[in-house]
Specification:
251 residues, alpha+beta, 5-stranded antiparallel beta sheet, 7 helices, 33% helix
């Protein structure tokens, strides 16, 4: 029997002026399987919200986590075909028809915890600019697939639903793992929040501690106010926000 336990928190916030139903970031959580994911749909892509939701929610539910390149490619191909099949019969404008031929795109990060062994660990797979950040005693041990806020840009390589585009892009999958100690925190963050969080960590900014505390205490209204203030100041991009916090302790 495992002597480890974890506590999860999640937070989703749309762009300023948008409804939550319009958010193109998606969260997937399967506590029984100890599996978590975030996908960030590309706004300019066709049906990006559906693609992000499909990726995040399907990955955490499959029988075995797709954590190897070949498994991940096969899973993405299956999900892409299902998404494109769902468009059959839709009446689209010529512009939407053209966009649908290109397919949909999303950043993705997923993590699998292994807490049933003496030395617990996590394994993550990521593509694009949604990130996993592993924290211990407030220090960042690892961040992937991007580790410095200066390296975020407007053209990340994303997971595509289009089989022609998929193969070349999927050469850039990042897979990593790490050891877990009691008190560790794993954060899954969509791109704007990941860049902001890494910036705060580098600058030792107090807003990082406030974010961590509000998230831990499920203070969603205060979190929303924090992000609106940060957006107004220009310190964070006005983009959809998706966050999963996993706090791990020994029982």
């Amino acid at each position: 029997m495992s002597t480890w336990q974890f506590q999860t928190r999640q937070f989703l916030l749309p762009k300023s002026g948008y409804q939550l139903s319009e958010c193109e970031d998606a969260i997937g959580i399967n506590t029984e399987a100890c599996r978590f994911a975030i996908a960030d749909g590309a706004t300019e892509a066709f049906d990006a919200q559906s693609w992000a939701q499909r990726l995040a929610q399907s990955w955490v539910q499959i029988e075995r986590a797709a954590l190897a390149p070949a498994e991940f490619r096969a899973w993405v191909a299956e999900q892409g075909q299902s998404l494109h099949d769902s468009w059959n019969g839709l009446r689209l404008s010529w512009y939407a028809e053209e966009k649908s031929r290109t397919g949909s795109f999303a950043a993705f990060v997923g993590v699998q915890l292994d807490l049933e062994i003496g030395a617990p660990s996590w394994t993550a797979i990521a593509m694009g600019d949604a990130c996993l950040i592993h924290c211990r005693n407030e220090a960042i041990l690892k961040a992937l697939p991007i580790s410095q806020y200066q390296n975020f840009n407007a053209t990340p390589l994303l997971v595509s639903s289009n089989p022609v585009i998929q193969e070349a892009a999927l050469q850039h999958i990042v897979i990593a793992s790490g050891a877990i100690e009691s008190g560790d925190v794993l954060l899954l963050l969509s791109d704007a929040t990941a860049a902001w969080y890494l910036m705060l960590a580098e600058q030792d900014d107090r807003a990082r501690s406030r974010f961590d505390l509000l998230l831990e205490q499920l203070q969603d209204c205060e979190l929303a106010r924090l992000f609106e203030s940060e957006r107004l100041s220009g310190r964070i991009k006005d983009d959809d926000i998706a966050v999963i916090r996993i706090a791990i302790d020994r029982q």
